[in-house]
Specification:
Length: 490
């Protein structure tokens, strides 16, 4: 069992608890556990089998460790099954619809309209019954319908990161099979798409029967759907479908090109082949009955008069013309990244200290790195108040003196400020700068206040136009505050 599957168990428990409006810190605990599991570089199952101490990891205590062991052994846990019995099966999926949160709408839809699944919600939206609920106007109704369509489009698909874990699991198995000479993953996974519907794996084997036997006996496979000389289709424990296609060595490159896609890119290449009276398919590039190329992708592109196109670009969005002119752009590689402007430490909800984060950034060759822990606005993430922010920023800037080839910066993650609170925010940020040893920012951002200090006053007509522009009522709290600040009202 891969880490993503184990993490999903804890995420589902958190979702179910959130639907029940349970203790927010308990919900957060389950989500933190899921994140810790996903971020682990080692397989949790291997650690359980090796009797490693799971409680040494962040957010994992004795009770959580027992649940992880239970999930590894049984595929589920007692707590999850108990929570599932309390709620309809499809309600968790309903809360995944954008703008439909558990507290805001999901439970209201369930209690007032009996909504228990996406199908129920879609039908209620089409019938117009959703609009009749309190707080569900036309705008929310339209957003809900759009969200449902988005979920249907991604239904049955998994994130690329989760697909990578499954590929890594299969890699350990396939590399140990002597009958398999080489193999590679094609499809949307190879093109680096954000989500993956299934996995297409091409296999070159000296003994196809032995290769098929080894694939069918893989521990991660829950069901063998079909098996033949050319193809073995299976489902993993997670439900992901995997198609293993056996390919001859002389056609391996052509098969990689064909099954990698995209469909539009392949059609564009076949159009070029037809212009030469050639045939391009998953077996190779042919002129009549003669094979022109097929073993390697690069050779196929070369015979078509094109530069090799990396899989991430194969979407028929101009890459074929660029390849014909040898004018393909370079992809951004991991080594091209020069820094990171958002990171957390143990000061809020991170897992590592300032020095550990900075050392890791320096080892990657970063030129700059910003530590931006949460402010007190995010209490669930142990956000920092103004005094703690100042001390934290000072510690970061002192640590910056130890890195000569990297600029270590101090920042803060703020969110949710309203317009009426902007003055308090500015004052807090200025105090933060002063406490951390930096000069006060040049130029006060509040232009109106600066004008008062300089003895200048705005013309009444300008004030009137400003009110019209903001479309705020004259008797609003915002306007009253402004009037109190005028010199003539003091």
């Amino acid at each position: 069992m891969e880490n993503a599957q184990i993490a999903k168990t804890f995420e589902e428990i958190a979702d179910l608890l959130e639907l029940q409006d349970a203790n927010e810190f308990r919900i957060r605990s389950y989500r933190e556990t899921a994140r810790t599991i996903r971020d682990q570089s080692h397989r949790m199952e291997d650690m359980v089998r090796a009797d490693k101490d799971l409680t040494s990891m962040p957010s994992i205590g004795d009770s959580t460790a027992e649940k992880i062991e239970e999930v590894v052994e049984t595929g589920t846990c007692k707590r999850l099954e108990e929570e599932r019995e309390k709620m309809p099966d499809g309600l968790v999926q309903v809360m995944k619809v954008p703008d439909v949160g558990p507290k805001k709408t999901a439970m209201q839809l369930h209690e007032d309209l009996g909504i228990e699944s996406l199908d129920d919600l879609e039908e209620a939206c089409e019938n117009g019954t959703v609009v009749e609920l309190d707080g569900m106007g036309e705008k929310t109704h339209s957003a809900t319908l759009e969200g449902i369509q988005t979920l249907w489009q991604t239904h049955g698909r998994i994130l690329l990161q989760e697909a990578e874990e499954h590929v890594e699991s299969l890699r350990r198995r396939l590399n140990a099979v002597e009958a398999i000479d080489r193999w590679a993953v094609a499809g949307s996974y190879r093109r680096g798409k954000e989500t993956v519907g299934d996995l297409d794996i091409l296999v070159e084997a000296s003994d196809r029967k032995a290769g098929a036997d080894a694939i069918s006996d893989c521990d991660a496979i829950s069901k063998v759907d079909s098996r033949g000389r050319e193809r073995v289709t299976v489902h993993l424990d997670s439900g992901l479908q995997v198609d293993f296609r056996f390919v001859d060595a002389k056609a391996f490159g052509a098969a990689m090109l064909y099954f990698t896609g995209s469909k539009a890119h392949n059609i564009a290449l076949r159009r070029i082949a037809r212009d030469h009276d050639w045939t391009l398919n998953e077996y190779g590039l042919f002129k009549g009955g003669n094979l022109l190329a097929g073993n390697e992708e690069q050779a196929l592109y070369h015979r078509l008069g094109l530069a090799w196109v990396c899989p991430e670009m194969r979407e028929d969005r101009g890459e074929v013309d660029a390849a014909a002119n040898d004018d393909l752009p370079d992809l951004v590689e991991l080594d091209d990244v020069r820094g990171d402007l958002q990171s957390h430490t143990t000061a809020s909800d991170g897992n590592n200290s300032i020095s550990e984060m900075a050392d890791a950034a320096a080892q990657r060759g970063y030129q700059y790195f910003a530590i931006t822990d949460h402010s007190k606005r995010v209490t669930m993430a142990d956000g920092l108040d103004e005094e703690a922010m100042g001390k934290h920023a000072g510690a970061i800037r002192r640590a910056d003196n130890s890195y000569h080839d990297m600029w270590l910066m101090a920042g803060i993650e703020v969110r949710g400020f309203t317009r009426s609170g902007r003055h308090r925010r500015r004052g807090g940020l200025q105090r933060l700068a002063a406490q951390s040893g930096r000069d006060r920012p040049q130029g006060h951002p509040n232009r109106r206040s600066r004008s008062r200090r300089a003895g200048r006053r705005r013309h009444p007509a300008r004030r009137q136009r400003r009110h019209v522009k903001t479309q705020r009522p004259r008797d609003s709290l915002f306007c009253r505050r402004r009037r109190r600040r005028r010199p003539e009202d003091r």
